[in-house]
Amino acid sequence: MNFKTTIILLVVLVAVGIYFFATRDTADSRGDTQTAQATERPLLDVKLEDVMRVSLTPSQGQAIAFEKKDGQWQMTKPLAAAVEGYQVDSLVRQITELTTRGQVEPGDATGLASPRYTVELVTSDDRSITLAIGARSALGDHMYVRLGDRKMADIVPAALDQVLQQPADKYRRTRLVDASSSQIRQITVERDGKRLALQKDGSQWEIIEPRRMPADYSAASDLTYAISGLTAAEFVADPAKVSHGLDEPVTTVWFSTEAPTTQPSDTQPEGVTIRLGRYDDILRKHVFASVSTAPEMVVKVAASVLDLFDKTPLQLRDKNVLRIEKDSIQRLTLQRDLAATTQPTTRPASSVTFTFERRVETPPPATAPADQAAGEAAVAEASDDATTQATTQPAPAPEPVVKWVLIVDGAEQEIDQAKLDPILNALNPLRAKQFLEHDAPATTRPAAGTYALTIVSGAESARTAHQVRITDPEGDASPFATWDDLVFEIDQSLIDRLNADFAAP
Question: Considering its fold, how many domains does the chain have in total?
Answer without folding.
Answer: 3
